Amino acid sequence: MFSLSYRNRELVNLFVVALLTAVGFASVYIARQDVVSTGSLSYALFFFALYLAAHVVARITVPQADPYLLPMAALLTAFGVTEIYRLTPDDAFRQGLWIVVGVAAFAVTLLLLRHDYRRLESYKYLFGLTAVVLLFLPALPVIGEQINGARLWVHVGGIQFQPGELAKIMLIVFLAGYLREKREVLAQGRIKDFGPLLAIWGAAMLVIVETNDLGSALLYYGIFLAMLYVATARGWYAFGGLLLFVAGSALLYQAVPRVRERVSIWIDPWAHAHTTGYQITQSLYSIGNGGFDGKGFGKGVFATTNGHTLIPQLNTDFIYSALAQELGLVGAAALLLVYMLFCLRGFRIALLAQDGFSKLLAVGLTFGFALQTFIIVGGVLRIIPLTGITLPFVSYGGSSVVANFVLLAGLLLVSHRANSISRIAMEEQ
Amino acid sequence: MNRQITRVAVVGMVLLASLIVGTTYWQAWAAGGLADRQDNAIQRVAQFTVKRGVIVAGDGHTILADNYRRRVGGQTLYFRKYPQRGLAAHIVGYSTQVRSRAGLEESENDFLTGSNTNLSTVVDTTLSKLKGETIKGNDLHLTLLPKAQRVALNALGGKCGAAVALDVKTGALLVSVSSPTYDPNLIENHFKLAARPRFGCAPLFNRAESGLYVPGSAFKVVTASAALDSGKFNANSTFYDPGFCTEYGKPVFNFADQSGPERFGTVSFTQALQHSINAVFCNIGKALGAKEILNHAKKFGFYSVPPLETPVNERAISGLYKKGKPFFPKNDFQVDPGRLAFGQERMLVTPLQMAMVAATIGNGGIVMRPYVVDKVTSPDGSTVITTKPDALGRAVQPVHAAQVNQMMQAVVTGGTGTAAQIPGVRVAGKTGTAETGENHVNTTWFIAFAPADHPRYAVAVVVERQHATGGEVAAPIAKQIMEALLK
Questions:
Q1: Are residues B275 and B306 in the same domain?
Q2: Which chain A residues in 184-243 lie under 8 Å from chain B, judged by CB atoms?
Q3: Residue B274 sits in the same domain as residue B419
């Protein structure tokens, strides 16, 4: 393997992923022949072709980038689309289209920024403001839409999307740029230096609280603290931030009935098993039913004997409980290990990057990815109160898939630059 | 900066690792508890993805419990149906969507769902799972004979009661009928209809194995065995019957509705049983003492839950009862031995236990373990387990069993049980007409085995709340069942 170049390694890994995807679709097909068609097998082929295209773009634009991230993203989307296909075949088609759009966004990001992504730094305020505007969109009367008690969606010409997902990446770019520039002065802890930061930050948080999107609030806050800590090396910033978070949560608990409800469901879902706690209890039953080795793709139980869905939002917020039932502990742990490996590679990129902006960008993107996974899966597992948020690359949802492909492109750009420079340095020695 | 990045990375990894811990908790540690919860809709549905084994009657082809297939949302689900409806409802039981179960459907659920741990079954279900096939349960083959079962049900028709028949040599349960019966197909959606009392009795209750009745004179078979085994009496003992027996200074009169005169004078042991003379048995009881009789009853299976494959809470213990619980006296004076000897006192028995008493006499004194599951077969037809007839022990000395057998034949040839005569077959039997405390309302019994010279079948019949005697009500029913079995 040592003789293989990064991109050839990536290609080999993609072959493995394509094989796994084919096996996944085949097992769904075998289990559900009367619902799905042989056409399902062409999904695997289509998948491979799509990632081959992504691979070619990466070969041209970022030849020195990490070879494992793209195959892992491919594996995660394969997990997701297979399970969505098994649950609601129509949604799987749409999800497939979104993955195409996502790969296109991945390619465009790489092509646009292949020379030097660091010029983004000069537009940091633009990114910050755009993020706030994006976050504000769902709150607008005509185009905004409220689903399940949270205003997260924007409806334009038949297409529905969640601008928050892209706003997250823009905020990370803003934070990376701003913190890189101001890290020394911020480290001194003078209030006035925090001004612009807190202004954009406060606006984002206000909008999120306004739209009732608690999961995102937690995610953004976590990313903010992590990046602030990395930039300033001030442990007590992170610690103080956590304290503020606890205080803020207590305040929210007192003030917002919806938060109180979430917490009481979290503490004892079985006390609300027939009302508000129904979803989480049935989701836990789904996970429990998976046992050690799972029921197998296509063999899990998700509907009543009359064919009604047992768990609402199964292919978005609760896709993890569907996967856990069908793949069992073995499969669910494997899925989580893929997330862990993805993040390990991401953090490694942050460590290898030479400049502050790159490091902050990579840390922000990676930690955001990890935290988002934790918030939704932890919510489903009742480790923390449940808040609706997507599982990166796996959940059904266009904006999430596209945003995560952009995130992946960002990590590859940083990685390519870091590896190229260290290679040049090595050659010079 | 790298130190901070490392720390953030550690935090991120710990967060993700906690998810693996959380998943492990729910899928390994808590999975069992989750599966047992009543509101677990997934388990409720999941049970229907398994093709439960069928339950076949002893004739080898009558299906008592079967499945029908339904495709729901791309999933094949199997639901239970009971083609013979009420024929063997109390033994077979039912299995519903809300996971309430009864009868063998409850107690043999592991076999029926293929979750038993016999090696061949484990291999089969694991292979099915790997191949993505439907998991099929094992089939139960019962000993119940549908024709005799039907005869018993019809003979009891319109009355509350029960009938049990056993194979004398093996202990196989051939007939177990509780009247009124119910249609297990109705339990799922029409529970109230299924449970609605008929002839004033609750149909869901299994009278054959958990119904407790005063045995009356049918218990005299136990007393007679005890008397002979004790050595205090023998087959040639003679008794004087003044028409009553004096207990605690008060006379206990013979039952008014016996055949023949109410005072027999000097009688043989055989005549005492033949005419069911209470005064004689009262004196035998006094001579033996309550504990001796009860210890003997224990050997017949009294005071323990009769071993059968049905759920343990669907089988009752026979014996003396005090405040709703079985009671064994510490001292003789706690129990009236005279009234115990002819099956009154606080003695309560199940029809199954009385059938075991008859079968034991027919089997020369050896109690056979009753069973209803003959064998369990896997979906491919191979045998998983077979029940081997098993002796629980000796209750009566062979010689004394033969003597009681002779006495019981006299009951049918010229005593209280003549209604049970079958042309060409020697029948041994004993009637019972137990007072219920209500005037002229009796629990009527007949226990029998036949052919008496080479016993094959034993029958016990009980009919509740009758104005006539066991010889008039229960004996003809027992005769019909016996005829059906002998055919």
A1: yes
A2: 226, 229-231, 233
A3: yes
- Residue B321 shares a structural domain with residue B292: yes
| pLDDT > 60? residue A332 | yes
Q: What is the DSSP letter of A293?
A: T
**Residue B36 maps to a domain:** no
Write the CATH number for B69: 3.90.1310.10
Q: CA-to-CA distance for B249 and B258, rounded, in angstroms?
A: 24
Give the nearest chain A residue to B133 (CA atoms): A31
Residue A192 has pLDDT above 80, yes or no: no
Range of the domain at B281: 146-184+197-373+390-486
Shared domain check, B128 and B105: yes
Model confidence over B177-223: pLDDT tens digits?
Answer: 999 999 999 988 888 888 899 888 999 999 999 999 999 999 999 99
Residue pair B214/B344 in contact by the 8 Å Cβ criterion: yes
E-assigned strands of A136-260? 144-147, 150-156, 159-161
Tell me which residue in A226, A291, A305 faces B45 most closely, judged by beta carbons: A305
User: pLDDT tens digits for B13-64?
Assistant: 999 999 999 999 999 999 888 888 878 888 878 878 888 999 999 999 999 9
Whether B443 maps to a domain, the answer reads yes
- pTM for the structure as a whole: 0.73
Looking at the fold, whether B72 and B161 belong to one and the same domain comes out as no
Question: What CATH number is given to the structural domain containing B406?
Answer: 3.40.710.10
- Kindly state whether B438 is in contact with chain A, defined as any CB-CB distance less than 8 angstroms: no
User: Under an 8 A CB cutoff, do A286 and B75 touch?
Assistant: no
- Whether residue B464 sits in one domain with residue B365: yes
**pLDDT tens digit string along B161-177?**
999 999 999 999 999 99
Task: List all residues 6 or more positions away from A244 whose beta carbon is below 8 Å from its beta carbon.
Answer: none
Q: What mean pLDDT comes out for the span B274-299?
A: 91
Q: How many domains does chain B have?
A: 2
Amino acid in the structure at residue A314: L
Q: Which residue has the higher pLDDT, A30 or A384?
A: A384
Nearest chain B alpha carbon to A271:
B39
In a domain, B13, yes or no: no
What ipTM does the predicted assembly reach?
Answer: 0.94
Same domain, B65 and B180: no
B209 and B130 housed in the same domain: no
Decide if B8 and A304 are in contact by the 8 Å CB cutoff: no
Whether A276 contacts chain B with CB within 8 A? no
Residue A36 pLDDT = 64
Contacts of A3 (CB under 8 A, 6+ apart): none
Residue B34 lies in a domain: no
A306 touches chain B (CB under 8 A): yes
Mutate to test the interface with B, among A232, A381, A384 (most CBs of B within 10 A): A381
* Chain B residue with the nearest C-alpha to that of A349: B5
The three-state secondary structure class of A360 is helix
Tell me which DSSP letter residue B28 carries.
I
Which helix (H) or strand (E) segment holds residue B241: the answer is strand B238-241
Q: Is residue B79 packed enough to be buried (19+ CB in 10 Å), middle (13-18) or exposed (0-12)?
A: middle
